[in-house]
Amino acid sequence: MNLSSGGEIINYGFDHGNIMSEKIHHYDFVDEIRICPLCGYGDGFHNMFRREGRKTHWFLICSSCHEVFDYGLEYKG
Ligand SMILES: [Zn+2]
Fold it and tell me: Of these four, 10, 30, 60, 65, which has the most CB atoms within 10 Å of its CB?
C-alpha cells in the first residue's frame, strides 16, 4: 500500500484472514462524514468498533478502498 496520510499501525492481536494489522487514518469531523478523503467514494462508510478499556472507539471503513478512518467518534453505550 502506498498511503500519503499519517496514521498508526494497530495490531488486533488475532489472526483473521491475512490482516493482522491495519493503518488508521485520523481526520477531523467537520460538518459531515460521507465522502472518503482518500479515494473520493461518496456513499458513506462501514462501521468498526474497538474496545480499549472502558472506551469503545468507533472507526469507519471505506466501502470502496477499505481504508480505516478515525474521526474521533466514540460509542457510548
Ligand atoms: Zn476510500
Answer: 60
CA of 41 to the centre of ligand 1 (A): 5
- Separation of CA 25 and ligand 1 centre (Å): 11
- State pLDDT tens for residues 7-64: 666 655 544 444 446 799 999 999 999 999 999 999 999 999 999 999 999 999 999 9
| Cα 73 to Cα 49: distance, rounded to the nearest angstrom | 10
Q: Which three cell numbers stand for residue 27?
A: 481526520
Cα–Cα distances in angstroms (integers) from residue 70 to residues 15, 17, 49, in the given order: 22, 22, 10
Q: What is the pLDDT of residue 56?
A: 95
Phi first, then psi: give them for residue 53, nearest 5 degrees. 65, -125
Strands 74-75 and 55-62 turn out to be antiparallel
Domain ranges of the chain: 7-75
